[in-house]
Amino acid sequence: xxxxxxxxxxxxxxxxxxxxxxxxxxxxxxxxxxxxxxxxxxxxxxxxxxxxxxxxxxxxxxxxxxxxxxxxxxxxxxxxxxxxxxxxxxxxxxxxxxxxxxxxxxxxxxxxxxxxxxxxxxxxxxxxxxxxxxxxxxxxxxxxxxxxxxxxxxxxxxxxxxxxxxxxxxxxxxxxxxxxxxxxxxxxxxxxxxxxxxxxxxxxxxxxxxxxxxxxxxxxxxxxxxxxxxxxxxxxxxxxxxxxxxxxxxxxxxxxxxxxxxxxxxxxxxxxxxxxxxxxxxxxxxxxxxxxxxxxxxxxxxxxxxxxxxxxxxxxxxxxxxxxxxxxxxxxxxxxxxxxxxxxxxxxxxxxxxxxxxxxxxxxxxxxxxxxxxxxxxxxxxxxxxxxxxxxxxxxxxxxxxxxxxxxxxxxxxxxxxxxxxxxxxxxxxxxxxxxxxxxxxxxxxxxxxxxxxxxxxxxxxxxxxxxxxxxxxxxxxxxxxxxxxxxxx
Length: 490
Fold this sequence. Notes:
Layout: E1 3-4, H1 11-20, E2 24-30, E3 33-40, E4 43-49, H2 56-62, H3 68-78, H4 85-92, H5 97-113, E5 122-127, E6 140-141, H6 142-151, H7 157-163, E7 166-170, H8 175-179, H9 183-192, H10 200-203, H11 211-223, E8 227-231, H12 236-254, H13 259-262, H14 271-284, H15 298-334, H16 340-346, H17 348-354, H18 356-372, H19 376-389, H20 394-404, H21 411-424, H22 430-441, H23 445-458, H24 463-471
Antiparallel strand pairs: 1-5, 2-3, 2-5, 3-4, 4-6, 7-8
Helix pairs in contact: 1-6, 3-4, 6-11, 12-15, 14-15, 15-16, 17-18, 18-19, 19-20, 20-21, 21-22, 22-23, 23-24
């Protein structure tokens, strides 16, 4: 049965092979390529691939043993020959058997380690005595393959989601385990052993390492079965916040929550008196700021509480608006101007229906204000209403996508809306930059870089996109942009 890589990354199988010294065949299908790895008693014996970039000829070319013309000539001969490419190159380029052997060894390592960063596709492992082509057995130590593979992992989201809120459990090192670690890795192991029963998120700051290097060390020790992880109890302060959220959730579900009391407002208080306290309450229970284990219901409950608080505030605003309209209508009647003036005030809803474009624009302006005050969920609600009235504005989709990107629960919707904005305005680099930021926030580094470069292809002066590409190891853009998605006026 095949295992989806999104749910079960390939390195997890290497962890079992190291632990149980397994024999068998691992077949990985991803991106149109198939890689087959043969394991014998916990060693990598051989590897095959249909990826031309991992063929023996490319390995020899990359190592400087042959040039591109020699490789092309050998591949041309191979079309009408039953001989292997390595044999043809050995004879054509006067390579020794030692050269071919080390190239094959390097190829097996490269194929195996290339499965570690894969984020899509599937794999399957068959436990049996491997049917190794040509009887080859390189006896490559799997821990060495794991070390090479871990360094290639850029998207650490799977491991971060699993381990960030858990505490590492250190096992005693066996003699063989000690031999499998470099001096730097031993130092990391020893330092980590001093932080037992502490969540990884609290440990990171204690290590003076770049975050990716820290995670590479954690993942390596995990895959080598030297470190495991257990649940931990969040600290008292966080526990209190989660308890408050649970209490509010139960009150809302039972219909017993007094929102006036929550906002510290007296009955009939003006909306401007309530708004400041509402902002503080909304920020306090923002689901993005709730730290809890991934399998906890606290984030879901916080999202529900946050949404209901926003709805309550909207109801209060609507109630005050109706009260003001009624008061103006009464004053208008008293002044014997019952039709013209009162209708101009009380028909605000009708005006919105008659002029949806204007109403949508007003909603967008309000949403932009909320966005600048980091009230992303509230801004998103207004933008959705704006798009119901006028779905022709790309900047509405753009701002909605950016707001949705701030919450883990709406990131898929964010991607849809940002792509829509990019489609509507193919000349605008900002939606592409926002997509790059979205993918970078999900640690999809390669995909992020693609969109940052697309933004630069449209506007080479886009300073934020240039800086992002530079941060990700790409080209350098020196000139500064006049516009950005955070400063451009729509």
